[in-house]
Amino acid sequence: MNIPAEEEKPLYSQRPDWADVVSLEQYENVAPLAPIFYTDEYKDATNYFRGIVRSGEMSPRVLELTENIIRQNPGHYSAWQYRYKTLMALKSPLDDELQLMDELAIKHLKTYQVWHHRKLLVQQTRNPGPELEFIANSLQVDMKNYHTWSYRQWILAYFNDDALWSHELDFVESMLESDVRNNSAWHHRFFVAFQSGVRNGDEDRDAIVRRELAFVKERIAIAPNNASAWNYLRGVLDHAKIPYSELQAFVLPYSLPQPPLGTPPEVVDLESPLPSKDSQLPCVAAIEFMADIHEAAGGGDLVKATELWKSLANEHDTIRKRYWEYRIAESLKTKSAGDG
């Protein structure tokens, strides 16, 4: 990012207070075939940075220099690394550095180095509490940013404090209320429920599985054509080693062109909630799920699976036609082998 004009300063080569530093050209005594055309400001700053690294200087002016470089190129990992070493050598106030990171992280959410530097700082401050609020605010800028979610998981797992975990399900549920198709939020919920250890109150793992199945079924009923929720459903079943066939009663209505008739609207099956009004049916994910049930059953059910795959290939999911034809061919091989 270019420094705004009102904040521009003379080049380091023009500053008297930097006259003692011998700058080091990137291409010293080299004629590169395809040189990168940096701006004069960036070339000047990085030349002096290489000079600083060569001399081993760690001082307040090094912090100013590295900030200058990072603002121009937030992916400059060497500048980040040397900045951190300088902060440690000077015993600089890390809360001030975190305030700077608050600004830079929001501007450069997709830059790995920003988050790695923040991680190093929090390891030193040992104060993870404010980080969850900061992350929540960052996610309002980009609700699916990988680095932000990854950093949140690191904070939770690294410090593993009950106070940090206490409201995490509420947080992720609020994110899904904002966007039920947020695959990052679904992934985080699975991390909290199944991949981060067992906390007080969660010892009954069967109860956790039932809770998560109920939660995801309700969200599928709201938005049936939501691949993230169907993937979560499969993840819970696979984790708990529950056969897909046990959810056939729930999935079947979503695989049909119209909701089944004969169920009074006032009757609600909490185990198998029906698709919401005006849902676009049949649902591709449900058809695939039913086909997987029949494929697992084998025998005569392979024919049912094949018919469902044909419907996907020829009507409901034609963009993946060749994939469904592959599934059909593989099932025919299995059937032939069984008949033989």
Coarse structural class: mainly alpha
Kindly provide the radius of gyration, computed on alpha-carbon positions and rounded to a whole number of angstroms.
Answer: 28 Å
What's the average pLDDT?
Answer: 93
Order of helices and strands: HHHHHHHHHHHHHHHH
Alpha carbon gap, first and last residue: 67 Å
- Percent of residues in helical segments? 55-70%
Shape, principal axes of CA atoms: elongated
Which regions contain 5 or more consecutive residues with pLDDT less than 50? none
* Strand proportion: under 5%
- The beta-strand count equals 0
- The number of helical runs is 16
Major sheet summary line: none
Give a description of the structure:
The protein is built from 16 helices and no strands. Helix 2 runs antiparallel to helix 3, helix 4 packs antiparallel against helix 5 and helix 6 packs antiparallel against helix 7. The radius of gyration is 28 Å and the shape is elongated. The termini are far apart. The mean pLDDT is 93.
Layout of helices and strands, plus pairs?
Elements (H helix, E strand, L loop, with lengths): L39 H16 L4 H13 L4 H14 L3 H14 L4 H14 L3 H13 L4 H14 L2 H4 L2 H11 L4 H12 L10 H18 L4 H14 L7 H4 L32 H14 L3 H16 L4 H19 L1
Helix pairs in contact: 1-2, 2-3, 3-5, 4-5, 6-7, 9-10, 10-12, 11-12, 14-15, 15-16
Question: What would a concise description of this structure say?
Answer:
This protein has helices at residues 40-55, 60-72, 77-90, 94-107, 112-125, 129-141, 146-159, 162-165, 168-178, 183-194, 205-222, 227-240, 248-251, 284-297, 301-316, 321-339. With 340 residues, the chain is an all-alpha fold. The model has no long low-confidence stretch (mean pLDDT 93).
